[in-house]
Amino acid sequence: MDMTIVENSALFRGIDKKKVPELLTQLGAYERVFGKGEYIYREGGRAPDAAIVLSGSVSIERTDAWGTRSIISEIKSGGMFAEVYALVPDEIMPVDAAAAERSEILFLDIRRVPRSGCAELTENLLRLTAAKTLMLSRKISHISHRTIRGRTLSYLSYMSAKMGSSCFDIPFSRQQLADYLGVERSALSAELGRMRDEGLIEFHRNSFKILGSEQI
């Protein structure tokens, strides 16, 4: 296990490194390796443990009744997933979690955190769950717009405000942005092209510049 990854993860950040091995024992930590495409958790199932990606990456996906798969997010090394569902063991997973590449995963019984006696660990878990709630709230705000333009402008406006500049980079590829906004990639690309032609934005790959404004 790469302890540096664990120590720098959001759950253990700021905790004395000497305490981490003992905390891992208290949380019943164990590791598993998953091959590319192998499912870690399945939609409709339960997630008894939270998980930290030690190496590789994990794709959080949803597949509709017609077999269309959409990627909701990608969890990279050091990231955590399934903690909310591990805290509520009767709640079923609404998504799949699959290894996007060969990945080493650390599982933790997150429900033991309040009994660990470590205030920093409890605070970190609260911050994690709050951050996930805010992220979901922002996404709902973006996709509540009916049009592709509305969703795109909502997201780009948020990123501009977050970065404090009209010029900024987004953390998504074009396909990932389409998946995040719940639209087809070709339709998103076409709309971005129209917005550029109308003088609203400039962009190159994942770098954007807001030139004008429009009622969203």
Record the SSE blueprint.
Blueprint: H1 3-8, H2 20-26, E1 30-34, E2 39-41, E3 50-55, E4 57-63, E5 69-76, E6 80-81, H3 83-87, E7 96-99, E8 103-108, H4 119-143, H5 148-163, E9 167-169, H6 174-181, H7 185-197, E10 201-204, E11 207-210
Antiparallel strand pairs: 1-8, 2-7, 3-6, 3-8, 4-5, 4-7, 9-11, 10-11
Describe the structure concisely.
The protein is an alpha+beta fold and 216 residues long. The protein contains seven helices and eleven strands. Helix 4 (119-143) runs antiparallel to helix 5.
Structure description:
The protein is built from 7 helices and 11 strands. By secondary structure, it is an alpha+beta fold. The chain folds into 2 domains: 129 residues, Jelly Rolls, CATH 2.60.120; 71 residues, Arc Repressor Mutant, subunit A, CATH 1.10.10. It has a 4-stranded antiparallel beta sheet. Strand 4 and strand 5 form a beta hairpin. Helix 4 packs antiparallel against helix 5. The longest helix has 25 residues. The protein is globular. The N and C termini lie far apart (48 Å). The mean pLDDT is 90.
